[in-house]
Amino acid sequence: MSDEEEMQRIRLKKQKEYEESLYNEQMNTEKEEREHYNEEKKKILRQILTPEARERIARIRLVKPDVADNIEQQLISLAMSGKIRNMIDDDTLKKILDKIIPEKKEIKIVRR
Question: Would you say the pTM of this structure is higher than 0.85?
């Protein structure tokens, strides 16, 4: 192998290592941002929801994670805009959920 080929191989190896380190750094930054966002979200939800209401949302998350995220986002949005003044208890959350989550349509099949 000539010196030039050896230098090219080393350059490519260094370039690959550099790109991998940039990728890892970016992934770590995104992970930290997600964790920070989740911590802030939990903090706000603790301020506006009673423990029973938070527990209800946690149970909803087990079945429908996207619905739970949507509810949390709407509640955080209302809290940030100042429309929520008191803590939301479980009964109030049930009323909110009735408005947000559409009722299931039941289909009855009658055999004759």
Answer: no
Q: Which residues contact 84 (CB under 8 A, 6 or more apart)?
A: 48, 75, 78
**Looking at domain 3-97, which of 1.25.40.10, 1.10.8.140, 2.30.42.10, 3.20.20.10 is its CATH number?**
1.10.8.140
Provide the 10 A C-beta neighbour count for residue 87. Answer: 13
pLDDT band of residue 3 (cuts 50, 70, 90) is: confident
Phi–psi pair at 61, nearest 5 degrees: -60, -35
Q: Are 38 and 76 in contact (CB under 8 A)?
A: no
Task: Identify the pLDDT of residue 84.
Answer: 85
Q: For 89, which DSSP code?
A: -
With vertex at residue 78, the alpha carbon angle to CA 40 and CA 45, rounded to the nearest 5 degrees, is 35
